[in-house]
Amino acid sequence: MSVHAGVMTDGTVLSKARERLLAVLGPDGVLTAPEEVAEFHDPYEGKDATRFQPSFVVQPSTVEEVRQVVRVAAELGVHLWTSSTGRNFGYGGSAPVDNGAIVLNLRRMNRILEIDEKAGYALVEPGVRFFDLYEEIKRRGLKLWMSVPDLGWGSLAGNALEHGYGYTVHGDHASAVCGLEVVLADGDLVRTGMGGIDGSPLWQRHKRGFGPSLDSLFMQSNFGVVTKMGVWLMPQPETFVTGSVVCHRDEDVAGLIDALAPLMLDGTIQGHPLITSSPEPAGGRPGFADDTVGMSAQQKLCAAFPPGRWNARVSFYGDTQVVRAREAALRRAVAHLPGVTVDLRSYPGDVPADEVHPHDLVPAGIPNMFLLDVMKRHLGDRIGHIDFSPVLPFTGEDAARHEAMVQRILAEEGLVAGFAWIATSRSLVGVSMVLFDVDDPEQAEAARRAVSRMCDEAERWGWSEYRAHPSMVDRVAAGYGFNDCALPRLYRRLKDALDPAGILSPGNHGIRPSARQG
Amino acid sequence: MSVHAGVMTDGTVLSKARERLLAVLGPDGVLTAPEEVAEFHDPYEGKDATRFQPSFVVQPSTVEEVRQVVRVAAELGVHLWTSSTGRNFGYGGSAPVDNGAIVLNLRRMNRILEIDEKAGYALVEPGVRFFDLYEEIKRRGLKLWMSVPDLGWGSLAGNALEHGYGYTVHGDHASAVCGLEVVLADGDLVRTGMGGIDGSPLWQRHKRGFGPSLDSLFMQSNFGVVTKMGVWLMPQPETFVTGSVVCHRDEDVAGLIDALAPLMLDGTIQGHPLITSSPEPAGGRPGFADDTVGMSAQQKLCAAFPPGRWNARVSFYGDTQVVRAREAALRRAVAHLPGVTVDLRSYPGDVPADEVHPHDLVPAGIPNMFLLDVMKRHLGDRIGHIDFSPVLPFTGEDAARHEAMVQRILAEEGLVAGFAWIATSRSLVGVSMVLFDVDDPEQAEAARRAVSRMCDEAERWGWSEYRAHPSMVDRVAAGYGFNDCALPRLYRRLKDALDPAGILSPGNHGIRPSARQG
Predict the structure, then answer these.
(1) Residue B2: predicted pLDDT
(2) What is the pTM of this model?
(3) What pLDDT does residue B43 have?
(4) What pLDDT is attached to residue B68?
(5) Using CA atoms, how far apart are residues A322 and A338, in angstroms rounded to an integer?
(6) Which of A302, A336, B68, B483 has the lowest CB atom count within 10 Å?
(7) Mean pLDDT confidence for A469-481
(8) What's the pLDDT score for residue B81?
């Protein structure tokens, strides 16, 4: 990543910006001390990093303050980098693509503005974490379930706007969004869909207004700063069943994937199965609670994974009879597969969180930190990761060659990675967390090189990553080459129209205005 | 609707455009004779209409021809009005909002480019009709089901791009779109999502690429001309159950709606129920096949409607056991409602079309013309309609006041209307077809006045129409008043960026570039 023309903002202007923003936000809203700003760097870049460097951090607490921050930035020509909570460590946390950005962090905008139990939705500010909404639902005794990613500390808005996934019925978080409020680069304030009508009761109930729908325009982009987001929630089911389809032999993945595909296509399986690959390490797999001393990296990693060479977590939610019938259909569909076992657990929908097995918290939509805790216990505090996350067709053949490619490159680079797919109706979303020791620059470099090589291979197959680390965004965007990169060129035209000076998150997903092309 | 500044294109320029377009498309691609162009007028405007007047019609048959048409239009400063098949008669057919438009009609682009049975999708050109895709699926013996609107003669793309609805699992047609190819106003050609990657196998399998998703930007807008569209299809179910929840008393609608809402929210009922209101006419309701001589308009209309004061058509698709469990859940949920009967029919998924009851064709995804045939038989050939189609919250209270308002205005204006709601998970989409005699200008005027009055009332409740007749688009758009009409202003900014001269369908959904503001 080269530093783009005009992007390095000089110290005098930044000083002036800090002064102006202090006047707008007060001392609580501006973080400048290095120890405070440190949290908004890429957590895995190491201490001597020279790229993805924020200058300082502002934390407005109201929409009006966001508008003023944007106006000050526009006036002074400094650039902002928006983050909600900034917890996507594998994708750089709050770190900006271009050095010198003022991080516009929205953690203090953490109000839950509305929860409608009957209509199944919430309206939240971008700083609301999965934990926060869950606690509020429980506090009010509402019969609503959420969809949460593997770690609950992140922001609902931040995750959804980055096309993140959870696992329950509304696990495709971008699709669960219904209505946004957005501050544009000139400080104007727009509400999408039915939100364009003052006081409409439909903003979070109906996804489209009159005219084009713009929710998805403000996802994975830098066209505005989202200050409110509607999100659909599912009603508490009568019964919840979750568990594993376990497949023990290396050669059976294609069959497992091909057996699951029609169950996703016809909606028998609800939400998004997480399918993990966990090669049997030399010396065998340790038990869940084993001491990790003397283990290989592969063994330690396996300790964090569910059993089986292949493990597909599947879930069913709803009316008890419907759930039982879905479960029966799944069992029939995989019964013919060699070496496959099905291990499901059933819960009443009103089960208390502390009676849910730790492995079942996520498919139950209960935010938690179990995965990180396990990984820290086995792998230590200094483990970083960079993720390779391609989308691929939902076929056994594609899945098998994807995994073979990743494992080959890992072996060649002497690395290990957590490997999983999130299943959607017609695609698999791969998530390979390539691990490295943050204090070992050589290993970190090898991890980045490995992910880059994986991208090369995926590109040849016509696949794309669904999201990427700041160091990878330009090259992933460059893969969209149809008709002389017509789609990236269209993104640039839209950026020119909405933010010609590139005030907002320049470089996000490779998008910059013409004035900031490198 | 006033004629906007600069929009009336003078005869000399149109002559020149005709000449240039003839050179591009040949004589088969340009219709200029009044009897040929007649079909592209609003079919219900009457013979002496002076508004919504096309100049002539072009029908390209390839993407390259569309690009050339757009370039010629841009060069000469004439404006186009895009239509696919132009069959939405209640919304004006192919008639342009601004007089003098050259209709860019895409009927000749009618190739089915791909159908993938395993992945459940098709890639079609905009002239492909519901009939065409159905016939091709049957011809190839593919186990796929479609979603179709009430009449099968329209275009899949035209319907989806206008936010149209069908009734099966993918009945929210805009949501079933996966990937577009679009010609921009300068002739550039873009593919959205994974289509931005040359030859990607993911274009129709995964809804998002890397960066913002633009599919919905090209729906209900005039930002481009869609030349290819991906659409998701459902696998042929093992069992298909459909039929009616019938409610016989006037006062029970709120209870019926409130009983159905949670079943839609939790997905027990699949697809989109059609809930019809059919007030018992004075003199009683005729039988389905009765001669209509001497009947009141209300009686004639009732003959085209299913039985009951309220009738909710519900459907279930899939694995037989799952379908039976869903059906049982529905029956339990409405069992307590007074005066309610449930009448369901079950079919095997491979049932031949000629063994499906005519009322069940649409929920079976089989395109047909049954509704129009029935209406013509009972109401004659000269009946036109203008539709009032608000979105409202899915509550019994809102539904009841909606219907009461419509029936009151109809009575005051001496009109009748077909009245229905299409149910979505959290909203109802009202469709009132207000009927009038095309040859009776006074009645036609009354119908337009009635719809205008209905819009006034809906606006006070914060509702919006989900689509509208050309005569209504500006006033519906004007209802989006939040922050000094921030959303319509944003649409204009996007239009300025993509089509500053307003070559493409100016006025569509109220969207015009700054240069064409009236």
Answers:
(1) 31
(2) 0.96
(3) 87
(4) 98
(5) 27
(6) A336
(7) 95
(8) 97
Chain A hits for B426, CB-CB cut-off 8 Å, are 119-121, 178, 204-206, 232
SS3 category, A501: coil
Instruction: Please name the member of B212, B468, B490 whose beta carbon is closest to the beta carbon of A216.
Output: B212
Which helix (H) or strand (E) covers residue A347, if one does? strand A340-348
| Residue A336 CB coordination number (10 Å) | 9
CA B30 to chain A, closest CA, distance in angstroms equals 28
Give the model confidence (pLDDT) of A192-219 as tens digits: 999 999 999 999 999 999 999 999 999 9
- Chain A positions touching B201 (Cβ under 8 A) are 393, 461-462
Q: Rounded distance, CA B192 to CA A486, Å?
A: 9
Nearest CA in chain B to A490: B190
Give every residue of chain B whose pLDDT is below 70, as ranges: 1-9, 287-291, 518
**How far is it, in rounded angstroms, from Cα B146 to Cα B132?**
11
Gap between the Cα atoms of B423 and B429, Å rounded? 6
Query: What local confidence, expressed as pLDDT, does residue B288 receive?
Result: 58
Q: Judging by beta carbons within 10 Å of its beta carbon (0-12, 13-18, 19+), is residue A407 exposed, middle or buried?
A: middle
**Rounded Cα distance, B149 and B167, in Å:** 7
The closest alpha carbon to B240, from B142, B153, B164, B351, belongs to B351
**Record: contact A322-B262, CB cut-off 8 A:** no
In angstroms, the CA A240 to CA A235 distance is 12
The Cα–Cα gap between A96 and B155 comes to: 45
CB contact under 8 Å between B488 and A163, yes or no, is: no
Q: Per residue in A140-179, pLDDT tens?
A: 999 999 999 999 999 999 999 999 999 999 999 999 999 9
- Residues of chain A neighbouring B389 (CB-CB closer than 8 A): none
User: Most A CBs within 10 Å: which of B183, B206, B241, B401, as the mutation test of the A interface?
Assistant: B206
Please judge whether A201 and B393 are an interchain contact, meaning their C-beta atoms are less than 8 angstroms apart: yes
Would you call B393 and A491 a contact, using CB atoms and an 8 Å cutoff? no
Q: Which residues are B420's β-sheet partners?
A: B276, B431
d(CA A99, CA A79): 10
State the Cα–Cα distance between residues B230 and B178, nearest whole angstrom: 5
Residue of A162, A89, A156 whose CA lies nearest to A129: A156
Name the closest residue on chain A to residue B169, using Cα atoms: A266
Q: Determine which helix (DSSP H) or strand (DSSP E) holds A384, and give its type and residue range.
A: strand A383-388
